[in-house]
Amino acid sequence: MSQGYSGVEGNVFAGANDVDTMGWSADLEYNTWDATTTADGGWDDTGLATQKLSGTFDILYNKDKTPFGTLGLANGQVVAMKLYINKTDDVKLTGNGKITKLSLKGNLKEGRIVTCSFVNSGSWTLPT
After folding, report:
1. 7-10 LR contacts (CB < 8 Å, sep 24+)
2. Residue 91 CB coordination number (10 Å)
């Protein structure tokens, strides 16, 4: 079982630096365990176990605020994140994300884009 979120409003901080997020997406997944018994009439049954939040955020490569230099984004770094679904109504996902991958996209009309992949580092607060 999983649930997806996405948006263009969001704040991701590397230390005290806002990384100027252009957009983001996140997937909430629930791990399950086998709860099948003979009382299930031949059907598999599962129970919910742990949760995992993973996703990506995009930033515009800025020579004065480079992801690899000034921002110090690197695999394994934990960054504070606020991912807004609706900033006006303060509907957001918040928590810490651990960077797992950095992808640089060049020769784009918009400029150079860096996509950062992340997984949760600890618990997150989800919109209700």
Report:
1. 7/83, 7/84, 7/85, 9/84, 9/85, 9/86, 9/87, 10/57, 10/81, 10/82, 10/83, 10/84, 10/92
2. 14
> Domain residues for 17?
2-28+50-120
- Please indicate, yes or no, if residue 11 is contained in any of the structural domains: yes
Domain count, the chain: 1
**Digit-coded pLDDT (tens) for 59-100:** 888 777 777 777 778 888 898 888 888 888 888 899 999 999
**Residue 25, pLDDT above cutoff 60:** yes
Strand partners, 57: 24, 116
Residue 61 lies in a domain: yes
Query: Is 42 within a domain?
Result: no
Per-residue pLDDT band at 5 (split at 50, 70, 90): low
